[in-house]
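Handout, section 4.2: multi-component inputs.
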Amino acid sequence: MTILAALLFLMLVGAIIAVETTNLLSAVISVGAVGFLLSIAFLFLGAPDIAITQLVVEILCLVILIRATISRDLTAVSGEREFFGMVVGVALVVLVALAGIAAFEQFPPFGEPVMARFPDDAPSATYLAEGLDRTGAANIVTAVILDFRAYDTLGEATVLFCAILGALALMRRRARRQRDGDETEEGDAA
Amino acid sequence: MNDPHAKEGMSLIVKTVTRWLKGFLLLYGAYIVLYGHLTPGGGFAGGVIVACAFILVFLACGAGIGHRTLGRLAASELDSAGALIFTAVGALGIALGGVFFRNFIRTPPEAHFRLLSSGVIPVCNIAIGLKVGTSLFMVLAILSAVHVAVKGGRRRMVRRREDKS
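Output:
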């Protein structure tokens, strides 16, 4: 519990530095630090699957952000902050914080899952009790995401696939040049 | 030594360490993918590690050798193959079990905790690993091929000149 509080505090510090600094490289590294601390927090909360995924995705994001964009693109932050935008932002943060406080009061205490209160009615009880026999997978997380909830995973895979498809279609070069050529030809024909 | 790409990328030390490390990285990614149904991990995490291995080669040895290791066409074909395998498993679930994504290979209780268990889940893991690994490699390949520059007072995405693909 103390470790989690310390991790949370460090994550808050990292997030504030990321927002406040004017150097984009420092901001990206601060966001990366927040991600790594989150990965450690997942490990202490007993979710090694998510911890591994968070760690490797964080490494990949840092590498891509630093190598592929920051060292090449325009990264200068210029101009003053708009007053109206800042007021709206602060108001939204206060609103979301109030809603969050109200929501967290409804939560069960930390470390006591809802399942412990209603052992027979919780949906996850079925998965835990029968997951191994029905799927044969020893890792219950994989059993849920690839067997009981495989349709969700198909949706996630489709999102990734479409994102890459769109990026490839936007960044290609040959087809655009051909289309430019076609346009002139069509202009001649018309 | 007449390799035109030999001078690209980082220093000799980085390239040598990359040559030693890339095999282990690929092996670790394949392990995370293949044992996803037994130990923490799975297709997504393992696929990202595989992508990291290719990105290491891409960054250390330069874009020329990086594209030769895993070309953009090969990457998009592997990506599509992963998506097709995953959808085919779902469709086979309808054909053989009556329900989309039905696990149509039953696992007897004595096969639990073995590598060959849990029916179609390892197949799905491999398909997702292929998909995620190649997709995330393509993210870096695409992003490193274009950059934002000011042309005529406006910010535009332009291709870097050394990228001849």
